[in-house]
Amino acid sequence: MGNIIGWGHNKFGRNDTQSTEDMIAEVVSEAISHAQVDPKDIDNIVVGTFNNGFQKQDFHGALPAINCEVLKHVPSLRVENACATGSAAIHTALNSIEAKRSKLNLVVGVEKMTDRSTKEAGDILLGASYRKEEDKIDGGFAGVFAQITDTYFQRYGDQTKYLSKIAAKNHKNGAVNPYAHMQVDLGFDFCNKMSEKNPLVAPPLKRSDCSMISDGAAALIIADDELALEAEKAISFKARVQMNDLMPMSKRDKTEFRGASLSWKKALSDAQVNLMDLSFVETHDCFTIAELIEYEAMGLSQRGEGYKVLEEGTVYKDGKLPINPSGGLKAKGHPVGATGVAQLVELWTQLSNKSGSRQLTNQHLNLGLAHNVGGTGGTCVISILESNQA
């Protein structure tokens, strides 16, 4: 199916010194070096970026070769799939390998968001929602998820405390991640209380409930099985699935990510594993309510009872199924096109026992899953990676 043999990742956050092109050059160079491959052997390139007006420069598929000219004649394309753009790029590369059209792929995910004002960025991100019906929602994309939160609260009761627990958990994890936008353990009390530093953004969501607008890039070198045998370290794809759902929220239950639920079921079935066979998960916490609903979509709890896995400690680093040991989008930041690629970097480092101070140590790590969501659940992409180490 495919094997990750190298990666590159820059620090997410506000980056006033690098352009999109510069960030791509940095992570491409790092990934090639880490994989110990000759760039002339790369025979396919896929670049994922949402853009939609964040940058005037488009045609991102052509950018990797500018600073690595040996790539100038390698076929390269840009893909976009809302917030699941990075995973779309990865799965596009895997399609090429599985079709035997290529053997060694370079995948890049990138986004340069902070050149735009918060208001401009919010409007650009609304392009991942159904503008025909959702364009005028107050608060931009945060307002869209505030509506999801309101509906969930109306049906299942006020879950503010548990959303704050999710935020605190992920910021604690992200505090020891050198790639994270925010490396601060905010604590539950801060996340749970509205304050000058933690105001309401789109009621009932506070700033601590929302992932950050960030700049960032990540890259992977993905090899077929034959080339992976020559690599110093290869982490293999065990399953990969994409499921979609209707884009308009008016046409589906806001409190259920049905596409995600179907994706999880199929991915686990394809991998021939159970949920609790997984060692850990990186899931798409663009807003804390998203992570709560995703607990239910993955089957950790019944609908409306996602809070129970927080009470039981299941999803903490020392729990039975750690969720977002990287800090997730909440702490790492969410440079849209880079997120899905960065999630697999985290899977690779954890499964290789090379995550430094954020390394999970409570169990033998052999299976990691990344769940990348586009829009408000309009697309859900899952990748399961397996370590081949004894």
Polypeptide structure, described:
Helix content is 34%, strand content 17%. The longest helix has 17 residues. The two termini are 21 Å apart. The strands form two sheets. Strands 3-2-4-7-1-8-11-10-9 form a nine-stranded mixed β-sheet. It has a two-stranded antiparallel ribbon with strand order 5-6. By secondary structure, the protein is α/β, with parallel strands linked by helices.
Helix content: 25-40%
Strand order of the largest sheet: 3-2-4-7-1-8-11-10-9
User: What's the CATH class of the domain at 3-116 and 214-228, please?
Assistant: Alpha Beta
Radius of gyration: 19 Å
* Main beta sheet: 9 strands, mixed
- Provide mean pLDDT, rounded: 96
The number of E-state strands comes to 11
CATH topology of the domain at 3-116 and 214-228: Peroxisomal Thiolase, Chain A, domain 1
Contiguous low-pLDDT stretches (5 residues minimum) are none
Could you say which overall geometry the principal axes of the C-alpha atoms support? globular
- Topology order in helix (H) and strand (E) letters: EHEEHEHHHHHEEEHEHEHHHHEE
* Percent of residues in beta strands: 15-25%
CATH architectural category of the domain at 3-116 and 214-228: 3-Layer(aba) Sandwich
CATH superfamily of the domain at 3-116 and 214-228: Thiolase/Chalcone synthase
Q: Terminal Cα separation, in Å?
A: 21 Å
What structural class should be given to the helix and strand makeup? alpha/beta
Number of separate helices: 13
Salient structural properties:
single chain; Peroxisomal Thiolase, Chain A, domain 1; two-stranded antiparallel sheet; globular
